[in-house]
Design a protein that fits this description.
Blueprint: E1 7-9, H1 13-17, E2 27-31, E3 36-39, E4 42-45, E5 49-52, E6 59-61, E7 66-68, E8 71-73, H2 75-96, H3 104-121, H4 123-132, H5 138-147, H6 153-157, E9 160-165, E10 175-176, E11 181-183, E12 208-212, E13 217-222, H7 224-228, E14 256-260, H8 263-276, E15 280-283, E16 322-325, E17 331-334, H9 349-370, E18 377-378, H10 392-406, H11 411-416
Parallel strand pairs: 9-14
Antiparallel strand pairs: 1-6, 2-5, 2-15, 3-4, 7-8, 9-13, 10-15, 11-12, 12-13, 14-18, 16-17
Helix pairs in contact: 2-3, 3-4, 9-10
């Protein structure tokens, strides 16, 4: 019975059900590493593809059970995850159908801790935590998970947020056994950064984090320093990479919306989801579990012509220092990377100048490649209407500026290294 809290879902049933069409109660569940078993002297590999309901998928007995001698304790599942899984659904639903209102602040403050724990609570996440802590016991690993549960929140709170939309694509998002996914275009699946329990470090400047919110909506978090300068070393840590510190103030008006994905982009994202999974993926449609059969290029760096998860840089500006005053006196402030006025690196003028020059180059390149219409817009909740385009005249001037950048040594070769190699989505 469920009441004994023994059967632990590391991807909750409520989350899985969000990806099932109305009236459908089972999904296709693919085991990427099916066991080989021996029975009565005969060896065989278990079936890789199963048709199961959420109650059976992404679950493991006693994953969160602690043991002290002969005593078993399941309070982590009952109370810790029970509380998260009670508050998480509303926050996920809010951002899947985002409209800024009085509930947005609470949803933001719930979603970030939920995602942080979701990244830790899976077999892959727990394996990673255990490995970086020196192979400690299961009991200690589970205790540490609760202690550092908000480890990723400040980094994500300073990221550029976009909500991508697959509603115009016949193919929808699949889910995996590790649904909060990190992608760095230079960290290939066979690399040391992705082997075993590892994910690309979210603090590496080029790492994007994404989380499917529904079959049609995907939350993508990108380090601001990468949007400002995607020409730098992808493995470099972002400015102020320290965990467990107050984050810079988050502005919900900066969330990019209405980025409508092509079917090819959705299939590419599903390919990343599959390659980043630890063992299992699931989908209501069997064919969606095999994205590699439909893509023109499987090269990790070339997905989306190198910018699959990138938000539109034309909405990004320099600076970003914020000051706030408190009722009754007192004030506080942060720069764009969460540094206080007295901390080293605060408003680094040399970095700001470098980022400004790189950002102008990137905006020109992006405009020339993407056209005048924005790939995602920022919503304005004042009197102004949404600006869907940069305008033809401004676009033309940016294209002319990009021609000058193309004359720089090595620039054409750099861009060729990011381009897909053939055309068309395979049937």
């Amino acid at each position: 019975m469920k009441q004994d809290y023994k059967h632990n879902h590391y991807v909750p049933e409520w989350y899985q059900k969000r990806f099932l069409p109305a009236g459908q109660h089972k999904q296709w569940y693919l085991d990427l590493r099916p066991d080989r078993v021996t029975n009565n002297g005969r060896s065989y590999t278990r079936r890789a593809l199963l048709h199961w309901g959420p109650a059976k998928c992404f679950a493991q007995n006693d994953l969160y059970t602690t043991r002290w001698g002969s005593i078993e304790n399941r309070d982590i599942e009952r109370f810790f995850f029970g509380q998260l899984d009670n508050s998480g659904p509303a926050a996920v639903a809010h951002f899947a159908d985002f409209e800024f209102n009085s509930e947005s602040g609470d949803a933001f403050n719930t979603l970030l801790p939920y995602m942080s724990v979701q990244k830790l609570r899976t077999p892959k996440g727990l394996g990673w935590l255990r490995s970086i802590l020196g192979g400690i016991s299961k009991n200690r690993t589970l205790n540490e998970m609760q202690r550092i549960q908000n480890i990723f929140c400040n980094i994500w709170g300073e990221a550029v947020w976009q909500i991508a939309d697959a509603s115009k694509s016949p193919t929808k998002f699949i889910i995996s056994d590790h649904p909060v996914i990190a992608y760095n275009r230079e960290c290939f699946p066979a690399s040391k950064w992705c082997s075993g329990y590892n994910d690309p470090d979210i603090r590496m400047v080029a790492t994007h984090t994404y989380f499917p919110l529904s079959p049609d909506k995907l939350l993508i978090l990108t380090n601001l320093a990468w949007v400002r300068d995607p020409f730098q070393n992808a493995f470099k840590l972002r400015p102020n990479p320290k965990y467990f510190r107050p984050a810079a103030l988050f502005n919900m008006m900066d969330i990019q919306h209405y980025r409508y994905l092509s079917e090819e982009e959705v299939v590419e994202i599903n390919y990343v989801t599959k390659r980043s999974a630890f063992r299992y993926i699931a989908s209501p449609v069997k064919e969606w579990l095999f994205p590699e059969k439909r893509l023109r290029s499987l090269h990790w760096r070339k997905l989306g012509d190198g910018y699959l998860f990138m938000p539109d840089p034309r909405h990004i500006h320099g600076g970003g220092t914020t000051f706030v005053g408190f009722e009754g006196g007192g004030s506080d402030g942060w720069d764009a990377y969460g540094r206080k006025p007295w901390q080293e690196g605060y408003e680094d003028k040399k970095l700001e100048e470098h980022e400004w020059q790189a950002m102008q180059k990137f905006k020109a390149e992006w405009s020339a490649q993407m056209g005048p219409c924005y790939r995602g817009v920022e919503l304005d909740y004042g009197d102004r209407e949404i600006r869907w385009s940069m305008g033809d005249d401004y676009h033309k001037s940016e294209c002319e500026r990009d021609k000058e950048y193309l004359r720089l040594p090595g620039e054409k070769a750099r861009r060729r290294r990011l381009k897909r190699t053939s055309s068309g989505l395979k049937d």
